[in-house]
Amino acid sequence: MRFSACLVAAWMMVLGCAPAPAGAGQEGASWSLTASDGKGVLPNDPSPPPALGPGAGFPPALPASDQGTIRSVDTGGEKAVALTFDMCELAVSTTGCDMEILSYLRQKGVPATLFMGGKWMRTHAGRVVQIMREPLFEIGSHAWTHGNFGIMAEEAMRGQIEGAQAQYAALREVALREAAEQGCPPPEIPACMGLFRLPYGRCSERALEVLAEYGLRVIQWDVAAEGGKDNASPAVARAAAGMVRPGSIILMHANLVPRGTAALVRSLVEDLEAQGYRFVKVSGLLGMGEPRLAREGYFSRPGDNLSLDARFGFDGTGRKRP
Ligand SMILES: [Zn+2]
Question: How far is the CA of 181 from the centre of ligand 1 (A)?
Answer without folding.
Answer: 34
